[in-house]
Amino acid sequence: MLSAQKFMAALSSSFAIFGNYTKTGRVFAGVRASPGIYSNVGSVKFLAANHSRRYLCRISATHDEEASAKPAAANADSGAPTIFDKIIAKEIPSTIVYEDDKVLAFRDINPQAPVHVLVIPKLRDGLTELGKAEPRHKEILGELLYAARIVAEKEGILDGFRVVINNGPSACQSVYHLHLHVLGGRQMKWPPG
Question: Does pTM top 0.70 for this prediction?
Fold first, then answer.
């Protein structure tokens, strides 16, 4: 069986993404590999120090998010309707948690926590990402944050929840219609990403 250090060195030479972790040694304490490690790299799981059962990183999930973010960014400013525009128009079904005249909140189809709700403005108005916000967007930004608070209360997580905005491809934004992720129902960890 390979030692954790030898395995990390071999893996980092194949996958540059792990280079920083193997050099600093500050994030990972060990590696647990499934028996089919060489045939299925996606099964590699990294362990955080003192958390032998809590996985910090999984290769396939990170790669998929990054892969879908790049083409989405290429079409960000096309003005074409997004999946969220279709949800607002009720062309695509969703489980609505909260709705008013300016904001819609619905359950994420790929939840990352027991409670994972997306909060979006009903009118995009050029607000494809937070980095494109202008002074005219101040009101809707406040409405979105207040709607996140209402969602947290409705979902029974007001005592502990996280609001996340992914901005651009480096943050794995995959839909270019500004949206807030309201996450809760489990203990959140720090740092988040």
Answer: no
